[in-house]
Amino acid sequence: MSRYWSDIVSRLTPYTPGEQPALVHPVKLNANENPYPPSPRVADAIRDELGATGDALRRYPDSSARALREAVAAHHGIRVEQVFAGNGSDEVLALVFQALLKHDYPILFPDITYSFYPTYARLYDVAYRTVALDEAFALHLDDYRSPNGGVLFPNPNAPTGQPLPLAAIERFVAANTESVVVIDEAYVDFGAESAVRLIDRYPHLLVVQTASKARSLAGMRIGFAFGDPALIDALNRVKDSFNSYPLDRLAQVAARAAYEDDAWFRDTCAKVMATRTRLAAELTALGFDVVPSAANFVFARHRTQDAAVLAANLKEQEIFVRHFNVPRIDQHLRISIGTDAECDVLLGALREMLEDE
Ligand code: PMP
Q1: 156 lines ligand 1 (CB under 6 A)
Q2: Which of 2, 19, 166, 210 has the highest Cβ tally under 10 A?
Q3: For domain 2-37+263-356, which architecture applies?
Q4: Which listed CATH number (3.40.50.300, 3.40.640.10, 3.90.470.10, 3.40.50.10490) goes with 40-260?
Q5: 86 CA from centroid of ligand 1 (Å)
Q6: What percent of the chain stands above pLDDT 90?
Q7: Which of 16, 89, 97, 113 is the best mutation target for the ligand 1 pocket, counting ligand atoms within 8 Å of the beta carbon and taking the most?
Q8: Is pTM, for the whole model, over 0.70?
């Protein structure tokens, strides 16, 4: 606290990112990063852009990231005017809060969800109301059928990993026409159905995606929104009132290369999903209840052991998982899917801990 702070700063509750330990070989399963590298074409594209001297860096990047947006539009079979690109989907979501979600009615999102949503709502002074997931952490869109300034949820949800069928989403979007429905598809490529194919039919549907997860580019910060050109226009108006160049030259060429290598993308997603199936089965055998996941993480609760103690004991062995000390989920651990070898280290450590009991 300082007398120099703007008033709103003291009232903020900033988001806490997963710890990035300064260790050489941590087993890092706490930030839903991809355990596999990006397509080899990504490093080639960055080298090409840099050239021998990095001369291209003298120039500002394309403020509209047109070539990248074209590649991503081609991937999804949509038009480039339906694509917005930003500096990670966190930034895209921040622009969405300002551009599309500030109205008279409060916006609605789940009580258990991505914890950045309430943070943005407070930062941008957007009124919100949370809607409880059921006891099994399922999200029921019928519970969102009330006047609202917008509806926002991840599919699959985070940190639970549960997906919603596209038919249920479409039924809701077709009924909720007075405000924008924002679907945060950060994890959609690991087993859920994308709503991108609905954007032509619903001018109030906005789908947000990221290159951080399924394309292994969390370190470069690239995110997207897909929707009607009028919604994209709103995002551009806020972007160009804040930072016209959210994506640097290297990020633009890197992400483009990643979206052009579909085979790599599908192969690494398949590997993550296969490891998820095995990890979930082995955790269940160790006494965990595992929420069925369509994401690159599982959300699990041990039937007898305290989650915070388990997380702390794992951390002592340089194995990092995510524990949220918040109501309803303080006995759960969110465990990102690592390589098979990383998951084996985790399972071995858990087995030893649980046998000691
Ligand atoms: N949405 C959800 C649900 C997430 O879990 C994350 C990652 N923490 C993001 C958005 C943001 O991802 P990024 O900014 O890396 O695109």
Answers
A1: no
A2: 210
A3: Alpha-Beta Complex (3.90)
A4: 3.40.640.10
A5: 12
A6: 93
A7: 89
A8: yes
